[in-house]
Amino acid sequence: MPEMIKLTIDGKEVEVEKGVSVLTAARKANIDIPTLCFLKEINAAGDCRMCIVEIEGRRGFSPSCITKAEEGMIVRTNTPEINEARRVILDLILSTHNRDCLTCVRNGNCELQTLARQFGIQEIEYEGEKIAANIDEVSPSIVRDTSKCIMCKRCVAACKNVQNIGAIAVAGRGFESRIASTNDESLNNVNCVFCGQCIEACPVGALKEKDDTKQVWRKINDKDTTVIVQVAPAVRAALGEEFGIKIGTAVTGKMVAALKKIGFDKVFDTNTGADLTIMEEANEFVERLTKNDNIPMITSCSPGWIRFIEMNYPELLPHLSTCKSPHEMFGAILKSYYAEKVGIDPKKMYVVSVMPCVAKKFERSREEMKNDDLDNVDCVITTRELARMIKQANIDFVNLEDDVFDDPMGEATGAAAIFGTTGGVMEAALRTAYEKVTGKELKSVDFEDVRGNKGIKKATIDLDGKEIKVAVAHGLGNARKVLEEIKAGKADYQFVEIMACPGGCVMGGGQPIVSSKTRSNVDVRALRAKALYNIDEDSKLRKSHENPVMEKLYSEFLEKPGSHKAHELLHTTYHKREKYNI
């Protein structure tokens, strides 16, 4: 049992574990302390000073996020002096900030804006020199605007401490300090992997995804173009949050209905592409396992992870599965098999992927993601961008009646749905690999050992007497640990799943941004993941190879998993990538 201590906060006795911060103790007692730089499990530095409190017997104010709670401590969080000090701190932050709130992508979902409203800031008392606007929009994924940065350093902490990359850091001193990359280069030219975790961490609009909604609208309004949209599994588990729906609510039917109202010609499910990925990936794994060829095989559907290994561990690239990611596979099939079936010129087809991920924008632009000189996918928009399009179309999302994906490519299994959470790709692949290896029916399809939020999960899977060892890592800091094991020859895994984002796609860099306060009180990751597991449990078909769309696709077009045609369309290669192009 952990050692417990008692302290008094605003006259209320609170019992907490020894070693936690005053802020954590206050939140346990449902006492609100405002924060800006604090982000649970990512950043606690006391830089912004918004979380100051009075501690009896100590001089001045103490930042509650880095002050340890102590036995018998008496804390005050809400005195006139504290609130006046916070108001002055907030005024000083706002004095140098670009306050073009109405045109900011974070308008209405900005922690600085929320605090300004809470403290009744209507004019700036200490007007200061504005931070210079330096906008970096070179990369296909992320845009940085220095004029909106408040130096909370949450992005730096996410990049360095969680992802273990360090593409950005604090440069300069005093008023000259700023968040910068190496040589002040664009993120496009340094060791950034475009995971977008910095965007999710940012409390304001200093970081955002590159917006591609305008070109999607143009294509929708072009009568000579057939515009097809496909939607990743994790999107349906989070999209509703943008419209005030409870976190962890799957909104599949409303999402499909909204996409049809927006004007897409066909609305398909990337889950179908996930089933296709499992057909190819499970086959590839069984072949490699049989030949003991480049084992362990490592999954390849997370583009931030792919960019990471290309930059940092190019010697391990042969261990990657050669499979394209689900939306790229599906795009390739739409522009070949489907185009032929319905009589559409693939050159006049425009495929849009709605993804929980900003790195997918980069992936889409890779030369390897082409067939017959056509991009497999023409445009990627994030969950947030889709929400903006729904609002722009004046659609009452909450009151929409559910609709269903279009035929003949709209069917998917429960195995595909769990692709959106850490361990899901592994579990889906094992369901099919088991039956391929043993020739027997898998009775229980739930592989509990690869589920959950532990950073690295390891398990031994019994394939009817043949044991295989697997590992699942999410977050690139954890990925690095697994790769170091493999590199040192200390790992005896046969199959490894790696996702760039902590929690997998449900916590992707393109998902709805949840405030620091909510993240402290709600396990967003677990709730979104549960929405996907519920879809899986409620599905009639829970193994990818049972999807009738797969059966028809292979019998009519691809022949069999791993065929020449399948490799031509659905597989790819990766290459060493320099960390810095300076």
Helical content stands at: 25-40%
Q: What does the oligomeric state look like here? A: single chain
Q: Please write the CATH class name of the largest domain.
A: Alpha Beta
Uncertain residue ranges: none
Strand content: 5-15%
Second CATH tier, the architecture of the largest domain:
3-Layer(aba) Sandwich
Main sheet summary: 5 strands, mixed
Order of adjacent strands in the largest pleated sheet: 2-1-5-3-4
Annotated CATH topology of the largest domain = Rossmann fold
Q: Report the structural category.
A: alpha/beta
Give the strand tally.
20
Kindly report how far apart the N and C termini lie: 53 Å
Overall shape: it is globular
Mean pLDDT: 96
Count of discrete alpha- or pi-helical segments spanning 4 or more residues: 20
CA radius of gyration is 25 Å
Overall number of domains: 3
Task: Please write out the topology.
Blueprint: E1 4-9, E2 12-17, H1 22-28, E3 52-55, E4 62-63, E5 74-76, H2 80-95, H3 111-118, E6 135-136, E7 142-145, H4 154-162, E8 169-171, E9 178-180, H5 197-201, E10 207-209, H6 213-220, E11 226-231, H7 233-236, H8 252-262, E12 266-269, H9 270-291, E13 297-298, H10 303-312, H11 326-342, E14 349-355, H12 359-364, E15 370-371, E16 374-375, E17 379-382, H13 383-392, H14 414-417, H15 424-438, E18 456-463, E19 466-474, H16 476-487, E20 495-499, H17 516-521, H18 524-538, H19 548-558, H20 564-570
Parallel strand pairs: 1-5, 11-12, 11-14, 13-20, 14-17, 19-20
Antiparallel strand pairs: 1-2, 3-4, 3-5, 6-7, 7-10, 8-9, 15-16, 18-19
Helix pairs in contact: 9-11, 9-15
